Amino acid sequence: MRVLLVNMPWSPIDLPSLALGIIKRSVDARVPGASAEVLHANLEFTDWITERTEFTADDYEYYALSSYFMGCGDWVFSSALYDDPMWRDDEFLKVMTGKLKKSRMQMTRDLHRVVPEFVEMIAERIVASAPDVVGFTSTFQQNTAALAAARQVKRLAPHIVTVMGGANCDAEQGAAVHRNFPFVDYVIRGEGEAAFPQLLTALGDGSDVTAVSGLCHRAADGSSTVNPMATSPLPPATILPPDYSGYFERLAASIARNWVEPKLVVEGARGCWWGEKHHCTFCGLNGSFMQYRSKSPDAFYEEIMDLARRHRVLDMYLVDNILDMGYLTTVLPRIIDSGYDLRLHIEIKANMRRSQLRTLSDAGMIYVQPGIESLNNRVLDLMDKGVSGCQNVRMLRDGAETGLSVAWNYLHGFPGETAEDYEPVIEQLPALEHLDPPVDLSARIAIERFSPYFNRPELGFSGLRPEEHYRFTYDLPESELYDLAYVFEAPARGIGEPTVTALNDGLRAWKKHHADARLTQADLGDRIVLVSRRTAFTWRTLELTDPFELAVFRLLDQPHAVPALTRKAAEKVPGAARDEDGVQQLLDSWRGLGLVFTDCGQYVHLAPPAVNEDLMRLDFMRHTYAEPDEAAPQESAAQPTATQPTAAQPAVAATAETLTAGAR
User: Backbone phi, then psi, for 36, in 5-degree steps?
Assistant: First the structure.
């Protein structure tokens, strides 16, 4: 049995598909007589469109990621899905005028008119390769492209079995895809590395498919039949490492090689251990299965090392929704000792200790996404985040100290939030200029399927409708769109536009001045020397010499409220103690100097040590991997070569995008 797995636009071009890599290995290992290949149709499209237009890497990134909540990428391929180059062009123009720049509007409409030709070409390629089964992955803005290709394949070769899966096919979404698009023979809902091989085995021996968990299939009359979803997720020991055969070779032959540096995608865990306890109210990322499960440390370490050696690439995305904390003492020390200068992107929780962050940094996990989302404790409580505003600021400060690049988003629009929750934060933003700003300006939350806000209307959102872009992308009634959609529109909640404007003005200034800003401290024992270069503060150097003030400042390495701070400082310097009013006056003066951040009665200082961790790391590497004429041995020729990080790291790490729907 020949199986062709297809990765349509707008899958990222700098990453192989993790899920198709897993599915390929699963088919090759678990289905006797079957072999699977991957068609990187996203790279095929890149080459095809650049021969016809002045299409750039930034344009691809826009349709793949940036425009997700406006649905531009999916609308582009809706013309191919409905075989109409002008499919709902007038409606798109009406809705998007004012939301898109004129140049972007024109490019989107131009792409919309020409992509049916690409879909026809890629379908002919698929049919010419004579597969028995073709599987399409669909995540983020791949849905219409995948559906359009499946439709064309079925038109050209009705005997080829068509299958779809991926995060866009989880639960109700997968049932809606199968119900409304009869050219899709089967839809895999849930984790595909078990269900897809089971389906292939059944197709090969003619056995019943009703035992395949989550599968959508057709009855004799062509109607859609839906098997129950699995009641528990796959154990991590059954999740095979990906097979990325062909991706790097295809990228090397593509114009995209001039646009991106390729990265590997690795997976250590699925689900979210925090979400099992407290599901963040706005988050729908884990789909059907929140249950956290992670690979054994030995298996995960060997998987990382094998991929690095095999593909000679050291930049990696770790797609886990949250780091397994056990890896800090198992996997990461082994990576540190391996001598491989890995650079990994990872999602973490914002309350990690400095020593833990340093372990991440030493292991090469220097691009972190800690899920900060807000700097106000009350708003964070509304999200059920389990951290405070001061802890999030501490994360930014300690990230700067340990050489981490912290990617985060500022969100607003939570039911119950008020302007009073934001005004003190906005007032203090100039003091944070030296720390990593959010990736973009603050955005009002979207209502995502599988999130508590979607599932529990009593939390503040009822009467949800699919986002408007679904209505001019698909020719379906709203009742079907409701099951198909992942993002929903809802009445605005929380703060009003004046507060949003003030917040974004502050964030815009932070982003503008960050590169030139500085605040550091050097603790010399009997004094602490602070150096500042921030636009809102005129002072440049400051020394703390008073014993009590030194004790207070050192205690503010961690968030403290005034009573606890007063008591602990008095214990350290009993002869110089001050009462709570005196401590409050000191904190007020430090806040005026931009030395501390305060939220909901807690305070934390803002000054990382005057130590450049990046230079220290380079110095360590210089001595560890010395040139041949130095004392250290020469690096082995088999050692992988590092790729350079891109200028702008994505806000969200790539997730498992495929016939598996373990993560969105």
Answer: -125, 145
- Reported as a single tens digit per residue, the pLDDT across 622-631 is 444 443 333 3
On whether the CB atoms of residues 6 and 134 are closer than 8 A, the answer is yes
DSSP category for residue 160: S
Instruction: Let me know: does 556 contact 565? Beta carbons within 8 Å.
Output: yes
- Rounded CA-CA distance 655/371 in Å is 15
Could you tell me which of 447, 428, 588 has the C-alpha nearest to residue 509?
428
Token reading at 277: 């306890």
Distance CA 626, CA 417 (A): 55
Residue ranges with strand state E in 124-175: 133-137, 161-165
Q: CA–CA separation, 543 vs 96, rounded Å?
A: 55
Tokens of 660: 């598996």
d(CA 423, CA 152): 54
pLDDT at 663 over 90: no
DSSP string covering 645-657, please?
A: PPSS--SS-----
Render pLDDT for 470-492 as a digit per residue (tens, 0 to 9): 999 999 999 999 999 999 998 89
Structure tokens at 117: 């030709």
CA distance 1 to 31: 9
What is the separation of C-alpha 85 from the centre of its chain, rounded to a whole number of angstroms?
33
- The strand pairing partners of 125, in sequence order, are none
The CA distance from 162 to 146, in Å, is 11
Q: Which residue type sits at 444?
A: R
* 8-state DSSP, 241: P
pLDDT digits (tens, 9 = 90+) for 537-547: 999 999 999 99
User: E-strand spans in 557-611?
Assistant: 560-561, 596-599, 602-605
CB atoms within 10 A of CB 647: 5
Contact call for residues 415 and 460 (beta carbons, < 8 A): yes
pLDDT over 60 (residue 67):
yes
- For residue 31, give Cα distances in angstroms to 209, 290, 634: 15, 29, 44
pLDDT in tens, 143-187: 999 999 999 999 999 999 999 999 999 999 999 999 999 999 999
Indicate if the alpha-carbon torsion angle 336, 341, 342, 348 is positive or negative.
positive
